Amino acid sequence: MTLIVVIPTVAGLVVAADSRLTLYDPNWIVACDNVFKISEVESVDRTVVFTTGYATVWALGGVQVDKVCEHVATAKPKFDAQALLVKAAQRPGASLPDIAQEVAGATGNYIASHPADYAGRLGQFLFQAAIARFDPNAGKAIIGSFSVNFNADASISADKLEVEYFLPNDGCQAKLFGEANYLTNAVFNGPGLQFLTERYGRFRDSIGAAIEHADPELASNFAVDLIEAASRTTSIVPSATGIGGPVDVVLVGEAARPKRLQWKST
Asked: Percent of the chain beyond pLDDT 90?
């Protein structure tokens, strides 16, 4: 899983994500804090994508436990839903239903060839996928999202397709993906409240005000504070899948390429 915060601002969409990948084996659990969870779409301007949930499968046979995170940083996963999402989002004129169908179809093909890799998820949600774009001419931000499920009959389906538009006069809000319930229950309404700092407070009053007055730097600091507070809270209230590591932040705005406001070194 993960925690991703998306905030529309006067300059475009601020997108922030944690870096933790938790890997499970019958004999060990390893948390790697070196994963990049926001991907640019190289051939499409002003666009990033991200996924949350059970979106990757790694080949870890023969890898020493103390080398797992190094392996994750240098090797390609056996299955990568985010890579599928990038590929689908590059197709000219592709609509969200088109993209969702392509990603779900490719996921189904993988699972049909590697049934053991997702056997424990039969009848359950697999992952959520999202595409964040900005139209500088209209000052409009767009977030399209959908979920992919591994149904009880072993079929793969995409549902909860949603496209949201954010115009300058609309009220500013923080959109949460991944461990959103954890942030609400364990941070806002739990012990994690103590970990929120002045970075959170400086932008909090902007929520609900017009997007045209939302400062991207303050929004970035706000998003980082939320994710870091959630990460610290996991030492008190464990999260289902882990939140942690450095926070990456990009601005999807007027520039053709997303601007990295905060990005961990490779």
From this structure: 94
Collect all residues with Cβ–Cβ distance below 8 Å to 178 and sequence separation of at least 6: 1, 2, 3, 4, 52, 53, 128
Report the run of H or E that residue 70 belongs to, with start and end: helix 68-74
Provide the residue type at 91 as one letter.
R
Task: Please state whether beta strands 3-9 and 12-17 pair in parallel, antiparallel, or not at all (unpaired).
Answer: antiparallel
Q: Residues 261, 14: contact at Cβ < 8 Å?
A: yes
Rg (CA), the chain: 18
Q: How far apart are the first and last CA of the chain?
A: 21
Residue 119 to residue 153: CA distance in whole angstroms: 12
Position 205 pLDDT exceeds 90: no
Tokens representing 80 are 């990568």
Given a contact cutoff of 8 angstroms between Cβ atoms, the answer to whether 230 and 3 are in contact is: yes
Q: What does the pLDDT average to over 188-200? A: 97
Q: Which two tokens stand for residue 91?
A: 């197709």
